[in-house]
Amino acid sequence: MRKNVLFVFFILFSIGSPLAQEVKFEEYDLDNGLHVILHQDNSAPVVTTSVMYHVGAKDEDPDKTGFAHFFEHLLFEGTKNIERGEWFKIVSSNGGNNNANTTQDRTYYYEVFPSNNLELGLWLESERMLHPIINQIGVDTQKEVVQEERRLRYDNAPYGRWREQMFKHLFKKHPYRWQTIGSLEHLASASLDDFKKFNEIFYVPNNAVLVVAGDIDIDETKNMVQDYFGPIPKGDEIERKTFAEEPIAETIKAKYHDPNIQIPAILMGYRTPAQTERDAYVLDMISTYLSDGKSSKLYKKLVDEKKMALQVFAFNGSQEDYGAYVVGALPVGDTSLEALKTEIDEEIEKVKTELISERDYQKLQNKFENNFVNSNSSVAGIANSLARYYMLYDDTNLINTQIDIYRSITREEIREVAKKYLNKNQRVELEYLPEQKEAN
User: Fold this and answer.
1) 256 DSSP β-pair partners
2) Does residue 323 share a domain with residue 427?
3) Segments forming the whole domain that contains residue 169
4) C-alpha gyration radius of the chain
5) Which of 194, 229, 264 is the last residue of a domain?
6) Residue 1, in any domain of the structure
7) CA-CA distance, 101 to 79, in Å (whole number)?
8) Which terminus of the chain is less hemmed in, N or C, by CB atoms within 10 Å?
9) Distance of CA 223 to the CA centre of its chain
10) Residue 345: beta bridge partners?
11) What is the spatial distance between Cα 12 and Cα 17, in angstroms, rounded to a whole number?
């Protein structure tokens, strides 16, 4: 009898647990166009203040790339009321931490403070938006920082250029063809006025969302938000260009020689739909099934069982306009890249022609449930999700309902979407090779 009671309790708890994860929020607009999202969670004395700007690498001039990422650094230089070099000192001395990151679609800044420093976080972000100091000293300093980042993460890193090489073949028209780091030559040749103009266009309240999440009082926070952000002038309406790619109709073969590697790699990339499309969600599940982690089909087959590959890796990126699924491997010994490609294609073909097992399907569902719960396990994670779902999906409540989309995906749908996108004639095949040595 006791076992039956415990079983019933377990079932009730399992059914109720998704409801316990619900994230409540309130959202509204200021008169200047700034969108505000507030989430109250008084379980711990912590608060996150964050601002996401709808500007990324795709908004850059093709002859002036790297600006969005550059501004991720530049807007920490100082403001009218924050002296140069003092930003991080202010944050750390008040028990906080902060950071920023840039993608091809958006730029995100945030601070995490003890909740008694909420007002400080709001002041910092309002200063960044209203009073940034963009001068030659700051520009020159951050050019050196970005140059060093480029050398460290791209130019001198083993396999550091794979993404750059893949995406310039996957995209011919869309700005996704260049990377967020951009061109150092473009940054070096840009004038101070170029940077000021970029700031004037994009870093304005009507191109941003402010999220405050954590130990707050809603009414008090609204008053502070109005005091700090209400007076900031609205920017001009932003004119955004759209870019439509022609479908890839035949295999694009490419090679790149990297001086920093000794072991070659094969990478195969497929262009995928925008992140808001249902097919993008299905492709998330397909990529997880095939190549996410040591329990994935490709890793178990190529690394564990056949011992043909040192590593199997994958990148599945859904973005605002398009996405990309890239899968690849590094060979063991004399295994050829062609042999690896054949084995990978064999597994892809199975997904296109057979239903994945019920066991694998349930494993996928469990993994996505776990990821969903983990993404909302901290106020910092919740703040990021709220901003992203509002700005890039136009549906803030996806923070609560996105998991339902994954739950509704069927095994049959997985097979049909694989047939639609994962075809040899719709991909880039990139041989990523060691640099050729000149014969003596």
Assistant:
1) 432
2) yes
3) 23-229
4) 24
5) 229
6) no
7) 19
8) C
9) 32
10) none
11) 8
Residue 4 falls inside a structural domain: no
Nearest residue to 33 (alpha-carbon basis) of 397, 391, 393: 391
Is 195 in the same domain as 278? no
Question: What residues pair up with 412 in beta bridges, in sequence order?
Answer: none
Which residues neighbour 141 within 8 Å (Cβ) at sequence distance 6 or greater? Answer: 77
Residue 255 forms beta bridges with which residues?
431
Per-residue pLDDT tens over the stretch 249-275: 999 999 999 999 999 999 999 999 999
Regarding whether 303 and 369 lie in a shared domain, the answer is yes
**DSSP code for 132:** B
Shared domain for 215 and 299, answered yes or no, is no
Residues 262 and 224 in one domain: no
Query: Per the structure block, which two tokens stand in for 65?
Result: 């790339």
Domain membership of residue 440 (yes or no) is no
- Closest Cα partner for 330 from 401, 273, 231, 261? 261
What is the biggest distance separating any 2 CA atoms in the chain, rounded to whole angstroms?
Answer: 83
37 within domain boundaries: yes
Model confidence pLDDT, tens digit, residues 339-394? 999 999 999 999 999 999 999 999 999 999 999 989 888 999 999 999 999 999 99
Size (the chain), residues: 440
Question: How far does Cα 199 stand from its chain's mean position?
Answer: 22
Q: Tell me, what CATH number does 297's domain have?
A: 3.30.830.10
Indicate the pLDDT class of residue 292, thresholds 50, 70 and 90.
confident
154, 52: one domain? yes
Contact 222, 203 (CB under 8 A): no
Task: Judge if 199 and 65 occupy the same domain.
Answer: yes
Q: Alpha-carbon distance 315 to 323, whole Å?
A: 10
- For the cut 80, the answer to whether the pLDDT of residue 288 exceeds it is yes
Its pTM stands at: 0.92
Q: Are 80 and 151 in the same domain?
A: yes
Nearest CA to 328 out of 270, 251, 267, 271 is that of 267
pLDDT one-digit tens code per residue, 163-217: 999 999 999 999 999 999 999 899 999 999 999 999 999 999 999 999 999 999 9
Number of domains composing the chain: 2
